[in-house]
Sequence to fold (300 residues):
Amino acid sequence: MTALQLSLLVGALFATGVLIPISGLLPRHPALGAYLDASSGAAPSLTTSAITGPATTAEDRIGAWLQRRIGGRLHAPTLELELLRIPVHRFLGQKAMFALVGLALPTVLAAVLYVTGARIPLGFPVIGSLVLAAGLSFIPDYNVRSNAQQARDEFAFVLGSYMDLVALERRAGSSPRQALEEAAEIADSWVFHRLAEELAHSRLSGASPWDRLRVLGERYGVAELTELAHIMRIAGAESAGVYETLKQRSRALRKAHLAKELTEANATSTKRDAPMAALGVVFMLMLITPALLSILLSGL
Fold:
C-alpha cells in the first residue's frame, strides 16, 4: 500500500467514524423549557429549550442529536439565535454540515489527484480535512452575528413607527397597556409580531408590559426598546402624558437612522473611488504602451 492510499484510507475512516453515530439518531426528547418560560415572568427564549419544532431535515436531525449529546459543551450565540428565531439544534446542524463538507473536500481532492497520477504528501487528506472542517464550522457563527446586527438595526428603525402608534393610542385615551397592545397589532412586521407576543406573555403571566419590554430590550441589545419601556412605566405609574415625548423620540430615531444611511452611502462611494482610479490607470497604460514600444523599437 502506497503512502497516498494509506492517507486516503485514514481520511475515509475518519469521515466514516463521524457519519456512523449520526445514522443512529435517537428519538427526540420532549422539551419543557418553552412552557416553563411562558409560565414565569422571564422573557421566553427559543434557545433554552432542548429542541423546538420537528426535526424534519437531515440538518435538524444532526443538530438535535448533537444538542442532546454534547450541547452543553458547545458554545452557541444564544441571544443572537433568539433574536433571529433560530433554534439551537438547527444552528448546531449547520455547523456540523459545514464541518462535514470540510472533512470530505480534501479527501475527494486527494482521490482526484491520485486518479490523475499526481503524488501528494501523506498527511494532506488528514490534516487538510481537520483544518478545513474547523474553519468552515465557524461560518454559521459569522452569519448569525452579522444577521443579528442587521436585525437589531431593523428593530430600532421599526420601533420609531411603533412609538408613533403608541403615542396616537395614548392621545385617543387608551391606557398604557392598551396603547402598547393595540399598537403592536397594527403592522405585519416581524418586530410588531415580536412585541405583540411579548405583551401577550405579560398579560398571561401578570407582569407589567413595560418590565417585559425592558427585559426584551436588554436581551436583544436594543436600547431604544428599553427607553420606550421606561417612558411607558412612567405613564403607567404617574398617569403622565407621554405623547410629545414619544413623538420626539421617534423623530430622533428617524434622524439617527437617516444619518447612519448617509454615512454608509458615503463610505460605499469612497470604496468605489479606488477601483475606478485603478481602472483609469490601466486604461491609460493601454493607450501609452503601444506608443512607447514603437519609440523603443524605432530607436533600436
Notes: The mean pLDDT is 78.
